[in-house]
Write a structure and sequence with these properties.
By secondary structure, this protein is an alpha+beta fold. The protein folds into two domains: 265 residues, Beta Polymerase, domain 2, CATH 3.30.460; 61 residues, Methane Monooxygenase Hydroxylase, Chain G, domain 1 (Up-down Bundle). The protein is 58% helix and 17% strand. It is built from eleven helices and seven strands. The protein has a seven-stranded mixed β-sheet, with helices on both faces. A hairpin with a 2-residue loop joins strand 1 and strand 2. It starts with 16 loop residues before the first strand and ends with a helix.
Length: 336
């Protein structure tokens, strides 16, 4: 064949394309975006899974033309800051879920936008989001799961998102336990209150991310769409159970944090009261001899110790007795 008639080589996938593969009876096969139409022309039960990370408009336009995606869904997928939701556009579903990732003891949030169609799944990641490579490897290892088609890939993605919440919640629990130990140790300092506030703030943000996802998962479980077969709904129901458990754990930790803040404040107030009582008791012990001895700083001629030989020792003894009596009284009252 003359060189001029040779087919032009396909362009490599853009850098924003993390994964582009065909899954079918023959297993997994990596493909190029330009080859999607050719591989889907063969109706053998296969589907494509395309993973994107912060794609540009050109790549989204290619996928829109390839799968007939709605303009509104493409517009949302090109932007972050979308609320968790599920929307139906013709024969496809558009799903938005929040993701979370612990970075330097702070939680960073991102989003995953999912397009689900009869023979495709497109995941678009924005912001802090871990790779879905483990999710892809999971369905590749489980043929019975892979046989469910794109809905199996959707389940694997949603399950990975929810599972990534678990270590963050566990870290919150461990941090709360450590702070509780510091609170009851009577070593109060400003850092405890600040850390409690920061922890509660992070949990509030996380709850905002997790709670709406329950509604999305509930809609998928109840969905009558042919894109979600009954067998796939069973798997998604399991993800829903996990998200409910995580949300309940978050609520419990938030309540415990509120209680911890209250206990910390009560203990600080109690400690301050104890200190004030001790200072008052020592002030009273010092006030009695001060009052008595101050009389002898005055210029009077008829002072008891001036005429009586034992007056001054008796005065010292009397002061000592008064101090001892006061000390025992305060000790009994637990002011000292």
């Amino acid at each position: 064949m003359p060189p001029s008639t040779l087919p032009a080589p396909s362009a490599p996938n853009p850098a924003c394309v993390v994964n582009c593969a065909l899954y079918g009876p023959g297993g997994k096969r990596d493909i190029l975006l330009d080859d999607i139409s050719d591989v889907l022309a063969v109706d053998d039960g296969s589907f494509v899974w395309i993973g994107l990370f912060e794609p540009d408009r050109q790549v989204l336009a290619v996928l829109q033309a390839e799968f007939g995606l709605h303009d509104l869904a493409i517009e949302d997928a090109g932007k972050a800051h979308q609320r968790p939701k599920i929307e139906a556009y013709g024969d496809s579903l558009f799903i938005v879920a929040n993701t979370a990732q612990a970075i330097d003891e702070r939680i960073a949030y991102g989003e995953t936008h999912v397009f689900l169609g009869p023979r495709y799944l497109v995941t678009v990641r924005h912001g802090a989001s871990l790779s879905y490579a483990p999710a892809r490897q999971r369905i590749e290892r489980e043929p019975e799961l892979l046989a469910l088609g794109p809905s199996a890939a959707l389940y694997a993605v949603l399950d990975a998102i929810v599972d990534n919440y678990l270590p963050i919640v566990d870290d919150f629990k461990a941090t709360l336990n450590a702070l509780e130990a510091e609170i009851v140790s009577e070593q109060f300092h400003r850092g405890i209150v600040i850390r409690l506030y920061q922890l509660k703030r992070e949990l509030t943000y996380m709850r905002v991310a997790v709670t709406p996802l329950q509604d999305v998962l509930s809609q998928l479980v109840r969905s009558s769409s042919p894109l979600i077969p009954p067998d796939a709904r069973l798997y998604i129901r399991d993800v829903l159970d996990h998200s409910v458990r995580i949300n309940e754990t978050i609520d419990a930790i938030r309540d415990m944090l509120g209680t911890a803040l209250g206990v910390n404040q009560a203990l600080v107030t109690l400690t301050q009261g104890e200190i004030v009582k001790k200072l008052g008791a020592w002030a009273a012990l010092l006030a009695a001899p001060t009052l008595i001895t101050s009389w002898y700083g005055m210029n009077f001629h008829n002072m008891p110790e001036l005429d009586d030989r034992y007056a001054y020792p008796l005065l010292i003894g009397s002061v000592g007795v008064v101090v001892i009596v006061l000390y025992r009284m305060f000790k009994k009252a637990r002011w000292l």
